[in-house]
Specification:
Length: 241
């Protein structure tokens, strides 16, 4: 299986917001990433709008549908009624539901299932009824994968923060083993497997052969883009995959 690369353009929006105008323009940022070869665009609208703003999302959706219909649009969001209604209306290819802790700097944990199952089951059913693939953000815990299947998700996005931080340290082997065992456990119960968080052109080496459908990369891509440009930073990630 070939693994698709979805570029999360949230940090382009963060840079734009810091100036109060429209540079960098998100549609142009998406264009450059797509021209470089990525297969998907991801956004994660948060309620505080510190990255992508809520009104950015329908504009991106319309633009991608019109100009890049084969590029997958993935909306990451918390299980909040207003956001779920937006996703239902826009009908992206995929919605990745992510738990949010107030005040967090970035997403740093997966769903706690089965404890949080009750709130997810009807939302997942609503999204899937609209033809939207549903992925759930998940910690690397093989024993938890049956619960993710039971709530009706199509895929899990494995939270790779601990794996990425362990790369090139004494903990690399153990973290890589956890990642691989969880991916196998997910597939064993019928789930597709995505991955994301702090993946980069170096630690992608540890996921080769893992049969991932997709990796979502944002922070590492734009950090590298500051050194070599957006086009080359995306091409390096594709080469690493």
């Amino acid at each position: 299986m070939s693994t698709s690369l979805s570029i999360n353009i949230n940090k382009y929006a963060l840079l734009r917001n810091s100036r109060g105008h429209d540079l960098p323009n998100l549609l142009q940022a998406a264009n450059v990433c797509i021209a470089a070869g990525c297969q998907g665009i991801t956004v994660h609208p948060r309620w505080d709008e510190r990255h992508v703003r809520l009104d950015d999302v329908p504009l991106l959706s319309e633009y991608l549908n019109e100009h890049h219909p084969k590029i997958e649009f993935n909306i990451e969001c918390e299980n909040r009624p207003e956001l779920i209604e937006m996703v239902q209306h826009l009908r992206p290819h995929q919605c990745t539901l992510v738990p949010v802790t107030p005040g967090e700097v970035t997403s740093d944990h997966g769903w706690d299932l089965p404890r949080e199952s009750t709130g997810l089951i009807p939302v997942i059913a609503r999204l899937r009824a609209e033809g939207i693939r549903v992925s759930l953000f998940a910690d690397c815990s093989p024993a938890a994968m049956p619960y993710f299947a039971q709530v009706g998700a199509d895929r899990v996005e494995l939270y790779t923060g601990p794996y990425a931080w362990a790369w090139a340290t004494d903990s690399q082997e153990a973290a890589t083993t956890d990642l691989w065992k969880t991916a196998r456990a997910a597939r064993a119960v019928g789930l597709g497997v995505n991955a994301g968080h702090d993946l980069d052109r170096h630690n992608l080496a540890g996921v080769k052969g893992l049969d991932l459908h997709e990796v979502s990369i944002g922070h590492a891509q734009i950090c590298r883009a500051l050194e070599v440009g957006t086009t080359k930073s995306v091409q390096e990630l594709l080469a690493a995959l």
